[in-house]
Amino acid sequence: MAYDEGLAERVRQRLGADPDITEKRMFGGIAFLHRGNMVVGVSGDDLMVRVGADNTDAALARPGTRVFDMTGRPMRGWILVAGTALTEDDVLGGWIDEGRAFAESLPPK
């Protein structure tokens, strides 16, 4: 599955030149990891965000979100945000910041 390169580039720009951030092909798209823990990823036109199990319900109450379910089994703690909900840079930035904060709370892999 191809992924939205424009969205991926916007994510790269937001994350900047942080040496703790790496990119890896995952889930048919590209993932951005902080010390081995996923921050966000781009799959198709959607943004995958790791928000943590405790924040899933609140994240799913926001516009353009849905459960991350690529295998028929929903992954609690992960959500997808529709690309159409990410046209504003501050909205995209908010999701990236949320995913990054969660990833930074985890021990390095």
UniProtKB/TrEMBL annotation:
Pfam families according to UniProt: TfoX_N
InterPro entries the UniProt entry points to: TfoX_N
SUPFAM superfamilies, A to Z: YgaC/TfoX-N like
Residue ranges annotated for the TfoX N-terminal domain, each copy included: 19-100
Highest rank taxon of the organism: Bacteria
Protein name per the record: TfoX/Sxy family protein
